Amino acid sequence: MSKASEQALGELHGEVARTLTAAVQVLDTENGKVFPSAAYIAVAVGFLKNNAITADAGKNEALSELQEQLRKKRTEAKGKLVSRESIDKAAAILEAGLAPLMDGQ
After folding, report:
1. Residue 84: how many CB atoms within 10 A of its CB?
2. pLDDT of 10-56, one tens digit each?
3. What's the pTM?
4. Largest Cα–Cα separation, the chain
5. 3-state SS assignment for residue 51
6. Distance CA 74, CA 104 (A)
7. Which of 11, 27, 51, 94 could pair with 34 as two cysteines, CB 3.0-4.6 Å apart?
8. How far is 90 from 12, CA to CA, in rounded Å?
9. What is the DSSP letter of 27?
């Protein structure tokens, strides 16, 4: 079997990029929006990663907005996270409370 030419590989690469671009578009239909599947998005992300494609949040408004939303969510979650120590204490209290009930079995 012969190797594909650089031109053929370039054309294939371009077609994969165009297909993935189309596959991850959100479509407006009569019944509302249709979102791409997680599988298509994962393939597209892998394609970008394999081709060392990155984005600069400073030059991309949508990416900047996403970055800001993530920052806000992290800030909101900080006070809501439970430490491992707190979980261990709660488990010990629960075990101590259940021990008398378990002894009767």
Report:
1. 7
2. 999 999 999 999 999 988 888 889 999 999 999 999 999 999 988 88
3. 0.54
4. 78
5. coil
6. 46
7. 27
8. 57
9. E
